[in-house]
Design brief:
The protein is mainly α. The chain has a domain of 173 residues. It has 19 helices and no strands. The radius of gyration is 21 Å and the shape is globular.
């Protein structure tokens, strides 16, 4: 019991010290300097669009991320370095098309405790990643893991409430963590090895800081020039322009059409699905907008993603939900065949899910 209390206190103390570092070190950086770094990061590198996978993935992103999280908990930095470099080089994917390197940093940033997380857990996680940076000072992987650690803690500290329900102390943690993540990312930009996740981290920083649309779009354009297949960029931009954040009604639809129309098949429909599917949920804004989507393109995108990268439980839930909205019983039936369990963030209640499942399974033979 005493040891547990000491560990928790050390985590809180570490978190407090990191806030102090953020306040001392993260003096405002001119936007022109930040944008120059963003352009310089991708200088001389142009990603190639691909629509194939060497082999169809079989591993689920949650399982993969948890494995990475355990390696951080064990401070097995040598193994983490090896996996991170391999993920970058191979551009590996997980079931449903999730990039391995994306899931890698998500896993590294999230404490593995088996209980409800608290600030002390994040403090300990960040302290481990600082040890990683100290052990591998020239490592892009270690620096990005630390940046993602700050961003993940910031999101945890802010919570999911509307802005007027977030306390001053929560905003303080959110802003200081974002500032520290930004400082780490800007520092990492000078390292030799480049990583597509660097741009995703910067998109998260830009979202948290509330950049204007012109600068955010410029950052996004640089990101997709660097790695056009990294669909997580598209979702980050879509989230930014959603009505709940900085966009206007209809803007998200226009963006999905704009970027997908520039791509050949199967990338066009896959990108459309990957953008719009992240907004499939039984919530007010989505229920207003989803009936307006290009449903045939959405369904074709799911088919292509599944054919190339396998069926994930999350994607199947997202297709099933939208298929019900469009009363496409055949697609809903196929989706529910692939669903292993209900995703509560999409369906909200077991009753809604069960009703949709029953309707889908009643497809005439």
């Amino acid at each position: 019991m005493i040891i547990g209390c000491l560990v928790a206190l050390s985590g809180l103390a570490g978190l407090a010290s990191f806030r102090g570092i953020a306040e001392a070190a993260n003096k405002p950086v001119a936007m022109d300097a930040v944008m120059k770094t963003i352009h310089d990061y991708g200088s001389g590198h142009k990603g190639a669009l691909s629509s194939t996978a060497a082999t169809k993935p079989s591993e689920v992103d949650d399982v993969y991320s948890a494995r990475i999280g355990k390696l951080v908990a064990q401070e097995d930095f040598a193994q983490l370095e090896k996996i991170g470099q391999q993920d970058r080089a191979e551009k590996g994917r997980l079931l449903g098309a999730v990039w391995k390197i994306h899931a890698f940093y998500q896993g590294a940033a999230t404490p593995v405790t088996g209980k409800n997380l608290n600030s002390a857990d994040y403090g300990l996680q960040i302290s481990k990643m600082k040890k990683w940076v100290a052990a591998y000072p020239d490592s892009t992987t270690a620096r990005l893991a630390l940046a993602y650690g700050y961003l993940t803690f910031g999101s945890f500290a802010r919570g999911a409430e509307y802005a007027d329900k977030v306390s001053d102390s929560q905003w303080g943690d959110y802003k200081s963590s974002t500032a520290q993540a930004k400082a780490v990312l800007l520092e990492a930009s000078g390292l030799k090895e480049k990583d597509p996740a660097w741009y995703y981290g910067m998109l998260q920083v830009a979202h948290n800081e509330g950049w204007d649309k012109a600068h955010f779009r410029e950052l996004f354009d640089q990101a997709i020039a660097f790695e056009p297949n990294y669909y997580h960029y598209y979702r980050a931009y879509a989230n930014y322009i959603s009505p709940q954040w900085y966009g206007e009604p209809g803007e998200l639809m226009e963006f999905a059409e704009e970027v997908s129309d520039k791509l050949p098949e199967p990338n066009s429909s896959m990108t459309y699905f990957q953008i719009m599917s992240s907004f499939a949920c039984y919530c007010e804004e989505s229920m207003k907008e989803l009936p307006k989507i290009d449903y045939p393109k959405y369904r074709q995108g799911y088919k292509n993603v599944t054919r190339i990268y396998g069926a994930s439980n999350l994607n199947a839930n997202r297709l099933g939900f939208v298929a019900v909205i469009f009363k496409d019983q055949e697609a809903a039936h196929d989706a529910f065949t692939d669903i292993k369990q209900m995703d509560s963030e999409i369906w909200y209640t077991q009753q809604i899910f069960d009703g949709a499942s029953a309707w889908a399974s009643a497809l005439p033979q």
